[in-house]
Recover the amino acids of this structure.
């Protein structure tokens, strides 16, 4: 039997939440008002450029309607959806309870995934639903280095997805007929750095200190 001593562990009752409360672009953002769904947007043609590269930013602001079943946000390459286009990033929000069966794992959850060159879905990453039916929502996608997408849901950091090459992203696809209403879609090619944080620095006023912990 082995034991290992951990000299100090700090547990805090509160936790830091990273948010993007107000994003400014270095140039005029591309803005769509009252976007109809489903919609496919040619990102190259509208001036967003090819690739979802560092400092690029997408914001979807809308409302999840009552009795929503499911909605999707895909970042895709050239080609036709589910036929010739790769989908390096797929955000799918499931708002229903399936009967017992093979799809019961989709009950009330959010799934991140991708479709590779073999036209097959990759390994799904599942999370709790960040949005509620009948309420407004904000979904933000921030491009980070190393083919990484940072996802924010309602001003809270939700997940990080890093799997496929994002340099050939050329299309944005949103679907959710009768499930979501898109009030605005903002495409930003470069986020300006800010000199002050959106929220005060993280402070743990009442930390709980555990010393000399022993793992048996």
């Amino acid at each position: 039997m082995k034991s290992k001593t951990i000299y100090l562990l700090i547990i805090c009752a509160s936790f830091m939440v990273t948010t993007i409360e107000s994003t400014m672009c270095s140039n005029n953002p591309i803005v769509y008002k009252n976007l109809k769904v489903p919609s496919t947007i040619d990102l190259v043609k509208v001036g967003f450029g090819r690739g979802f590269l560092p400092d690029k930013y997408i914001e979807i602001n809308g409302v999840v309607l009552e009795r929503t079943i499911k909605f999707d946000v895909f970042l895709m390459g050239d080609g036709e959806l589910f036929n010739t286009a790769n989908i390096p990033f797929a955000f799918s929000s499931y708002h229903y309870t399936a009967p017992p069966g093979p799809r019961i794992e989709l009950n009330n959850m959010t799934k991140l995934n991708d479709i590779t060159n073999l036209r097959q879905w990759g390994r799904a990453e599942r999370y709790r639903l960040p949005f509620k039916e009948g309420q407004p929502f904000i979904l933000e996608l921030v491009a980070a280095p190393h083919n990484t997408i940072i996802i924010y849901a309602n001003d809270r950091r939700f997940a990080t997805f890093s799997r496929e090459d994002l340099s050939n992203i050329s299309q944005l696809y949103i679907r959710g007929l009768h499930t979501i209403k898109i009030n605005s879609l903002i495409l930003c090619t470069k986020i300006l750095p800010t000199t002050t944080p959106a929220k005060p620095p993280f402070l743990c006023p009442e930390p709980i200190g555990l010393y000399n912990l022993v793992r048996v």
About this structure: The chain has one domain: 26-193. The mean pLDDT is 76. Residues 151 and 168 are 19 Å apart (CA to CA).
